[in-house]
Design goal:
With 138 residues, the protein is mainly beta. It has a single domain, classed as Galactose-binding domain-like (Jelly Rolls). The strands form two sheets. Strands 1, 3, 4, 6, 9 and 11 form a six-stranded antiparallel beta sheet that branches. Bound molecules: alpha-D-glucopyranuronic acid.
Length: 138
């Protein structure tokens, strides 16, 4: 089994800031998206081979309103307005998974806020390779 973690605070952030004021994140912090549509985080993801992989986003949304985001891979939309629902508290982190085709070598995976509320707080992206049956854990 294999997976690779990419921390949001190390990714390319557009209209957001690195923060660490809500416990439970992995790495050194998380990205607090600006409360505006179009704010985004882009991860540089390397794949050993082309194929379908699982993109698991770890996030917190301490509001009761969904914070949908559009997920693109290499500029193509793989999930439009994917739900990032309320998690109950900013310190409660959950995961959602989108499956997508990656190419061998370098890929970009971007999560862009679809509404004026902006994105949730984003902790990391876990990329799980084909054939991996291990359940992602925090
Ligand atoms: C609060 C919270 C932030 C969050 C923000 C938001 O300010 O402390 O972590 O990002 O709400 O609504 O996006």
């Amino acid at each position: 089994s294999s997976f690779t973690d990419y921390q949001a605070e190390s990714a390319t952030i557009s209209q957001g800031v690195v923060a660490s004021n809500h416990a439970g994140f992995t790495g050194s912090g998380f990205v607090d998206y600006d409360n505006v549509a179009g704010s985004s985080v882009e991860f540089a993801v390397s794949a050993a081979a082309a194929g379908t992989q699982s993109l698991t986003f770890r996030f917190a949304n301490g509001t009761t309103a969904d914070r949908p985001m559009t997920i693109t891979v290499n500029g193509s939309t793989v999930a439009a307005g994917r739900s990032f629902p309320g998690t109950g508290a900013w310190t409660t982190w959950q995961e959602i998974t989108v499956n997508a085709q990656l190419r061998a070598g370098g890929n970009t995976v971007r999560a862009t806020a679809a509404t004026a509320n902006g994105g949730p707080n984003l902790d990391r992206l876990r990329v799980t390779g084909p054939g991996d049956t291990e359940k992602p854990t925090p």
